[in-house]
Amino acid sequence: xxxxxxxxxxxxxxxxDLSFDAPSGVTVLFGRSGSGKTTVVNAVAGLLKxxxxxxxxxxxxxxxxxxxxxxxxxxxxxxYVFQEGxxxxxxxxxxxxxxxxxxxxxxxxxxxxxKVIEMLGIGHLLDRRPAGLSGGEKQRVxxxxxxxxxxxxxxxxEPLAALDDARKGEILPYFERLRDEVSVPILYVTHSAAExxxxxxxxxxxxxGKAVRHGPASEVLADPSVxxxxxxxxGAVLQVRxxxxxxxxxxxxxxxxxxxxxxxxxxxIGETLRIRIPAQEVILSNKPPEGLSALNVLSGTVDxxxxxxxxxxxxxxxxxxxxxxxxxxxxxxxxxxxxxxxxCYAVIKTVALAPHDVGGRVNQS
Amino acid sequence: xxxxxxxxxxxxxxxxDLSFDAPSGVTVLFGRSGSGKTTVVNAVAGLLKxxxxxxxxxxxxxxxxxxxxxxxxxxxxxxYVFQEGxxxxxxxxxxxxxxxxxxxxxxxxxxxxxKVIEMLGIGHLLDRRPAGLSGGEKQRVxxxxxxxxxxxxxxxxEPLAALDDARKGEILPYFERLRDEVSVPILYVTHSAAExxxxxxxxxxxxxGKAVRHGPASEVLADPSVxxxxxxxxGAVLQVRxxxxxxxxxxxxxxxxxxxxxxxxxxxIGETLRIRIPAQEVILSNKPPEGLSALNVLSGTVDxxxxxxxxxxxxxxxxxxxxxxxxxxxxxxxxxxxxxxxxCYAVIKTVALAPHDVGGRVNQS
Amino acid sequence: MGWLGPDELEALRxxxxxxxxxxxxxxxxxxxxxxxxxxxxxxxxxxxxxLVHLPLILPPVVTGYLLLLTFGLQGPLGxxxxxxxxxxxxxxxGAALAxxxxxxxxxxxxxxxxxxxxxxxxxxxxxxxxxxxxxxxxTVTLPMILPGVIAGAILAFAKAMGEFGATITFVSNIPGQxxxxxxxxxxxxxxxxxxxxxxxxxxxxIIIAMGALLLSEFIGRRVAARVAGS
Amino acid sequence: MGWLGPDELEALRxxxxxxxxxxxxxxxxxxxxxxxxxxxxxxxxxxxxxLVHLPLILPPVVTGYLLLLTFGLQGPLGxxxxxxxxxxxxxxxGAALAxxxxxxxxxxxxxxxxxxxxxxxxxxxxxxxxxxxxxxxxTVTLPMILPGVIAGAILAFAKAMGEFGATITFVSNIPGQxxxxxxxxxxxxxxxxxxxxxxxxxxxxIIIAMGALLLSEFIGRRVAARVAGS
Amino acid sequence: xxxxxxxxxxxxxxxLDEIAIQYEDxxxxxxxxxxxxxxxxxxxxxxxxxxxxxxxxxxxxxxxLQEGSLIAPGSRVDLLGNRLVLIGxxxxxxxxxxxxxxxxxxxxEDGYLAMALVDAVPAGxxxxxxxxxxxxxxxxxxxxxxxDNVRAxxxxxxxxAVPLGVVYRSDATVEDRARVMAxxxxxxxxxxxxxxALTAIAGSKAKVxxxxxxxxxxxxxxxxxxxxxxxx
Lengths: 365, 365, 230, 230, 232
Ligand SMILES: Nc1ncnc2c1ncn2[C@@H]1O[C@H](COP(=O)(O)OP(=O)(O)OP(=O)(O)O)[C@@H](O)[C@H]1O
Ligand SMILES: Nc1ncnc2c1ncn2[C@@H]1O[C@H](COP(=O)(O)OP(=O)(O)OP(=O)(O)O)[C@@H](O)[C@H]1O
Ligand SMILES: [Mg+2]
Ligand SMILES: [Mg+2]
Description:
With 230 residues, chain C is mostly helical.
């Protein structure tokens, strides 16, 4: 287990009491505003001293109240990306980036600054000061600063919440690259289902200071009962391989023997990816569809049908590519006569597979 | 024309030079960061004195540099909802709300405070101070404060940008109610296509200080060339009437004779609404579709086919409900043999018609 | 206060009165000048800033002497004011004037810094809601700078309690009129063996000034918390 | 400076030296105390705060007398320090000590306010990046409070230039040793016909102090702009 | 120190400066004078000030030092005397034959009488004694504006802030905005004496300078500044 957290702490309004062990990769903490996410991250960072608990990263203990062990923040070797950036206003971007490096221990694994700068696309900003940067640029610098401190764990507290969608789209890939290329464990706080879907290796759902659900991202996302992400976030995650880039701007993926098409993505042929198929983008058909503009059809058998609170139901289909979820109305369930074990076809629009649902390379670990 | 703006002003980096006349309702200003949106709003508010120009609201001149007319901000009777709220931290919510009322002229049309408080759902917050409020609550109070100043024009500068999606969803309806129930003209700045779609009566697209496009929301949104909103924002806006609420949680709408189903919405039977059909949620079929889970099918004839830069194309369909746009791949255009004048079916998932695409009552004016 | 003689008690009472009025009357001017220095750009701003600081920099005797030349019975301003019945010379009011002027720079600095910390955007918000400038000041700026105003006022009060050089030079030392605590201390220090009496008075003024300072920290923090809305 | 006699020139030179060193040497202490008052909660914090303000509140003569009793050759501290070769009594170093102590509250107040304006979150950010406390102070806090430090230092310098009561009481008025500009002014004012000379010296000190103040406003604004990153 | 360090009451500045320059020119011997209030200087000597010679403006502080064995035995001399005068400011008509006993109250009108602190500063103490002996103190008591030193009293008169003041003759001679209205007979108050003495740490050079101060050359300077010589 790469990150192990156990915490008890009384806050004015809520009691924090949780414990979770997370594998390496990205652990997403999510939950409503006020559920205690920042408090957990601060306790891991050492900015808050919990009443009792223990946190370790890759077996290295940051604190353990039973042993009376308490590392001050500056000895924890973390890269904390704060929600508000917290760049040093009096330093240039370059100086901000190298701040953590001054203090990193001699023997620490060092990122190559040039590589990080290039990865984040902030080379042209190096001599400017934070005040002159746009929100997205600031956040990229903050990520770079955290990364170049040679951290053993990266903490990111809603790093994208203050940004508009366009800027979110700019930055999300950098976190994916962190996960996939740098392989530092990351504890990531977010409200956004899209971010969870793209980044999370495992998810911890917080509610009133307790961890109410905890598991791999694909499981938690496929569970409509997990409130924070919302019903619109439910979806399946498929593992696919890039098989061809077509001349008409489409990329063909191999999903367990079936071809899926989506608008050109930058990944190389042969690469293995995860893509999220949002349940609400899937149409079901009880016979092979014909004459439709949708290019992607996955056939499979109905596995489960779960009716929701409203007019909808989540139908889970067993396909050769893996399980696929569809969110349709109960009325359609009846109209199509869907039943467990029945043969069925999932129709997915090409353009509905948005780039933000395509994850990076599948993590090897 | 309810709002008439003409401005020239030199900023350090850009030259502002624009003029537009907007009908009553919501005029949305949009454009990239730094394109001058806030500057325009500030000039209207009187917080910035432009080199030259003229602004009038319902024929009442706020300033006119030619005439040497310049009303100071406090005489303009505006309700400015700032991006960051700017609530008075030392006053309670109640005092914040009544602040503008102290200064409103005697004869001014007055909103009923109780009604506004109820509309915004902030009745339980009245005795608290801004510091204790969540971001969404703050922004609602800011809207109420602006509204209760009996403004002749409401200015809203990215009022939702700092909020997460859930909170955006909470607040957007209040702006719709402002538009529909209070009928004060509103100048609204946003980056978000969803907000444009739901709120805008007319849209002014800004680029480098110039108004590059200006027209009714439905036109601007149907135009894939308008960059700020992005291709994913393209869609058609249909006028529909609520015809029935079904027991299984669906609401049936009458769209020019065809029935559309979507998850229950709170509007009354007989009400006329606008709903946005995002182009990318529409699947086309060249024969009447069968056996599909999607409940909504609109038949029509192909009007235009515009190929985009990428692998996609926007197909416009003439239906009895009005024009419907579909974003599909060029490959599908070929596969279906689509041509202008051809009979065709638009398939739309019930659950894809998200509540945030359903506008409020259609404005009578 | 059995251990204070009647003269000393009188001096204490007078010092309190002088300092109180010195603070109260200069406060509006202090707020105004602080606001002007913090928010307005006008020619002569730096001159005003310099003038305000002058009493901090000049030897107090010089300040007192300048006051005497200006507000004394023969002074240009003193004569004009005497016509309308305002006399500073040799009155406790003069002691208050001297104390107020000596304390003024401290007051202005404290208030000015707190004004500079107020976000002008909140004032703009007030203006867009229809409040004229003065109302914006009264309803937005003033409440928000209250901690700074209180700190400045109490610091000024404490300074006024200790002021001596300018006061005695301007209005001399008239028991019951202008003999403040520090003048009494000075007198005791002039004669051999007066140390004990001087110490007693010094201790009293320290207690008062410290009490005021602690109070200002306390009130300042309370008000700041209230203003910050928590 | 042809119109200054050699003694006066000497007094000016001495005043500059005294004020310079008074400011320079107290500055680290000022920053430390300001930081402690602004950021730490410890028992005795209010006592420290009161002590720091004491010289502002006490009549300067009293402060001088207390210094004489403490740091004089017979004083408890004076004797100990004399053993290690540090003598304040009747040396220009003593004048600097007096001036430094009198100016200390002003310096601390200015710096403290600027520290309180620094967002502790930035300091936390420094800590998470691996910087120990002192490094965080040196690389984050200090650069950000520089405008306040400069303002505080120059204000202290100006105050030191004008300090008189405590200085003359502590280290007397020995030309070339402890006769600062204000002491010289005092001596001139004690004798008939000295006003002209006194006025000349006062004008010089005003010019210097005002120059310093203007400089501090200017530097402060420049540094603030640089620190704010614009 | 090589030279002589003199601690002298501030009112002696004009005279002593002149004498010191003469002395330095004549002997090449450096004389440095620190001028301050007698109380300040005496306390500093108590605290080990490196002064060689102390000239006080009153006897009391010298007595204190003497009791503390801080002055060289046998070195104390009554160096100078002074006279107390009543002065009038620019607003006071020059009265011929002004007599303090009869005319003081009338001349004051509503104004104040400026004096140094009457219980603390020598000139004030002497003035209070004189007025008491004249039987005027009770009447005038409430109209006395006391200053921290006698020069400040003179300044009040000179500036016209008060009509009258009681100061030393040595102060009044040079100020042309104030006129001497009357000189108090010196039997009305304790003798005004400026005692001088070598401190316990004084060197031989200081003794030479103290002797010089009593020489006719020096005494001429003192007289010119309005001081009187003891026994005169
Ligand atoms: N220092 C503190 N003092 C008082 N209350 C606190 C403090 N820190 C946190 N809380 C309270 O503890 C609860 C959890 O706060 P926390 O900031 O961890 O929530 P969060 O999940 O990060 O919320 P958000 O999504 O709004 O950032 C909240 O009710 C908050 O008000
Ligand atoms: N007071 C000012 N001083 C200097 N430059 C300014 C000022 N106000 C605006 N600008 C510049 O003018 C341009 C337009 O700014 P404005 O704030 O109007 O943009 P915007 O469209 O509102 O951007 P955003 O979406 O980021 O809020 C920007 O380049 C900005 O840097
Ligand atoms: Mg948080
Ligand atoms: Mg803007």
